[in-house]
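Data card: per-record layout.
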Amino acid sequence: MTVKVGFENLPAPIIKHLNNVMNMRPVYPHVYHVTELTMCLRKAYYRRVYGGGQRGVKGLWNMYRGSVLDSAWSPLFDFNQRTFVVTKRGVTITGTCDFVYDDGSGSILYDLKMPASTYYRKREGAGQGYRRQCAAYLALAHANGELVDVHRARVLMVAEEVVVEEVGEWTDMLDSWLWPRAFLLDAALSSKDPSILQSPEEGWECREEFCSASTDFRIKCAYQGRDLELPVRVSMEEFEEAASSEREVDR
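The structure for this 251-residue chain is written out next.
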C-alpha cells in the first residue's frame, strides 16, 4: 500500500483552481483595509511595496476553506457581508462585516475566522489582531450610521474546534487609533519612508535592527507574514530563486 501525505498531492486542476480564485486583495493608493491597519504597520508597508508573494498550496487551501465556508454561512443571516467605507482628508478606511446575529440576548456583530488551528486560541483567546479587527468593523459601522443599536461583537473561530470570544466595544477607536494609523501609513507610502512608522509590532522576531536595515528581511516579511526567520544576507536574485524553489515544493 502506498500512502502519500502533503498538499502537493492534490491533483493539478485543483491546485490551478486554488491559484485562480484566491488572488490577493487588490490594493489602491490611499485606501486601507482594516486588516492592514490592525497588523504591524511596517508589515503593511512592505506588503504594498514588495507585494504579498505567492502562497504555497497549503496557504491557498487555508484561505479557500475559509472563503468557501464564509460564502455558505454568511447568507444564513439577514445582515451579512456589509462593507463599510469612511473617508477623511483624502484617505479611506474600509472593512467588511461577516454577519450580525441576535441570539436572544441582543444583536451581535460576528467576525468569522477559519484559522488552521484553534489549539492556542482555546487557552489564550482570539489574539489582539482578531479582536482589533472585530472592534474596527463595529466602529466603521457606527461611523456610517449603521448598526447603531449594536454594541457587542464576537470573534468566531472554527477549525478543529469552535472558539468564540467576546470583544468589547471601542467607542472612540476610529478617531483615537484607526485614523492616526491610516494617516501614518499613507504618509510613509507617499514619502517612501518606512522609518516614520512606529517600531515593529508583530513580535520578538521583528526586531528594529532587522526591520529597518535589512532589505532581505523586509521582503521576507512581505512574503511570509508572521513566520519570519532571522535575515539572511543574500542578493535579491538568490532570494527570488529560493522563494521560487519553495513555491515549487509547495505545489
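Known properties of this structure: The first strand starts at residue 31 and ends at 33. Residues 7-250 form a domain with the Lambda Exonuclease; Chain A fold (CATH 3.90.320.10).

See the next section for split statistics.
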